[in-house]
Amino acid sequence: xxxxxxxxxxxxxxxxxxxxxxxxxxIAFVLFNYLSAVRVxxxxxxxxxxNDRLMLIHKVSFIQxxxxxxxxxxxxVDGVKAxxxxxxxxxxxxxxxxxxxxxxxEPEGYLNMYPEFLLPDDAKERWYRNRTGAVVGRSLADRFxxxxxxRIPLQGTIWRTQNGDTWEFTIDGIYDGAEQGTDTSQxxxxxxYLAEANALGRGFVGWxxxxxxxxxxAVAIGDTIDERFANSPFETATSTEQAFVQAFASQIGDIGSxxxxxxxxxxxxxxLVSANTMGQSVRERTSELAxxxxxxxxxxxxxxxxxxxxxxxxxxxGSLGMGLSWLIIQxxxxxxxxxxxxxxxxxxxxxxxxxxxFLGTASGVVPGVQAVRLRIVDALRxx
Amino acid sequence: xSDAPESxxxxxxxxxxFRRGSERIDVLQGVNxxxxxxxxLSLMGPSGSGKxxxxxxxxxxxxxxxxxxxxxxxxxDKMSGGKLSRWRSRHIGFVFQxxxxxxxxxxxxxxxxxxxxxxxxxxxxxxxxxxxxxMVGLSDRAxxxxxxxxxxxxxxxxxxxxxxxxxxxxxxxxxxxxxxxxSGDEILELLQALNKEHGKAIIMxxxxxxxxxxxxxxxxxxxxxxxxxxxxx
Lengths: 383, 233
Ligand SMILES: Nc1ncnc2c1ncn2[C@@H]1O[C@H](COP(=O)(O)OP(=O)(O)OP(=O)(O)O)[C@@H](O)[C@H]1O
Ligand SMILES: [Mg+2]
Prior knowledge:
The complex is a heterodimer.
Chain A: H1 4-11, H2 15-42, E1 53-58, E2 66-67, H3 70-75, E3 80-88, E4 101-105, H4 107-113, E5 117-118, H5 121-129, E6 133-137, H6 138-144, E7 151-155, E8 166-177, E9 186-190, H7 191-197, E10 204-205, E11 207-212, H8 218-228, E12 236-240, H9 241-250, H10 255-283, H11 286-294, H12 299-330, H13 346-373, H14 376-382
Parallel strand pairs in A: 4-9, 6-8
Antiparallel strand pairs in A: 1-11, 1-12, 2-10, 3-4, 3-11, 5-8, 6-9, 7-8
Chain B: E1 7-20, E2 23-36, E3 40-44, H1 51-58, E4 66-71, E5 74-75, H2 81-91, E6 92-95, H3 107-112, H4 122-135, H5 151-163, E7 169-173, H6 181-198, E8 201-205, H7 209-213, E9 217-222, E10 225-228
Parallel strand pairs in B: 3-8, 3-9, 6-7, 7-8
Antiparallel strand pairs in B: 1-2, 1-4, 4-5, 9-10
């Protein structure tokens, strides 16, 4: 590109101004990536939720328990392939701040229902046989430096054992996520252990996960199930897992649209900043652009020079910002592991790249058109 | 179309009218001018008489209100846009009173600017730039920025930039107007050498009668008309 030295040196004609503008762009894109990682963490699960799975909860709220006996009755509904259940344990590990999700599940049924949880076969075997065994997600294990064989005590807050509130578990395996978005912050253990050891006795579970054979019939099957339990002491509400996770996520507030609004405001401000820089830079070199035109640069030529210059500024600043945010995000999530995952999804990287190009073009358009409109004779007269 | 075959520039019945609001300024009112190949013409006249305007019209920076301008066979009053830009880059070298170098570029990059539009390779361009800088005696200042040069040196870089594409015609608008006598004389000598040794045709606007004497012919512009007072008109 033979015009590169010309464009590059024009960009740095006012070093301080250009550096400040670059810095604003860098910060904007660091924010952009960081906030999209946060947004993804909060909407976690929504994207990866299966659409062939239904969630069945108590009609009143999902913290109400349901009879264990429902399992067989759900399975008998036409179109249902498999049913398993999960129960919120809500124990404390050492300190209430060390929060993570703990679920009492049917080990085999649960892993079959969620093939995106990857566990080695020997670990599976071990877990199925060990009544007080647990498996934990990779990010959770990393957070507390747990390895297979570790004994983990949890203080029950909802569930107590017959002889106190300390529950002992042994880690039998560490599962990985099949996808980047898979939640690897869970702690899973035998429902049987919970049911047999707790002071209240067995008979109740938190909610049911139902696998159906035809996703397109999800609504009809859900309605059939709910009808079956209508007018019983435990009425149910069945929805797709996606809808369920969405509703769950929106309880934390609509983090997603908040983040989007912040990012929008930041990027709009940056657009004004860099458009202003380009505008000033073009205005103060009116006579130089006139000279270029005198030398034979066409209107299209000067327009390209200005556009490429502002693109260059956006690309340099934007890539630095994206790179820097990558480094920051690599350091792990700001809560030290509370978030189920912390990464920038590829889709947002593509959007980021698109925004860089948009920023570069948009901030160069007005100055570029000014450069085109410039009449040589008038511009030279003004010097 | 051409009256004299060796004629490089023919200006016929040239009019230029500027309008400022309702006011109408007839700057040029029927100018006729011929410039032979390799001729060195100086153009004098009171301030505001239209010298710059005439130069701009001959160089294709502006379009006439009426009349024709032919340069080496091309009717440039009929050209516009990109075509005129490209024509200019091939045929005309401009030298400005205030040098108009790009402050962010070194001398050699300034001289290289017009070549960026040519199909020349990087190596060829480098050679042309070196030659042009040598012709103006500034080979040792190639890497200097304009602010590191004296006014006279800046103008020599300006001249190097004007001749680097080997144009047919050099148009100089008060090239010594901003220089002290000594630097001015050096520039005038340089222009004379370009004319004598390299056969460049030159039109130079000047307010300085001593400068005008260097040319082979001097024309006076007054009230929008040319008055011949040349030696060998
Ligand atoms: N773009 C324009 N719009 C309006 N008037 C103009 C324009 N360009 C030139 N003029 C007018 O035309 C007249 C001639 O201007 P020009 O610059 O050609 O004079 P000049 O002979 O070069 O003067 P000087 O010796 O001061 O450089 C002036 O009165 C000027 O105000
Ligand atoms: Mg003038």
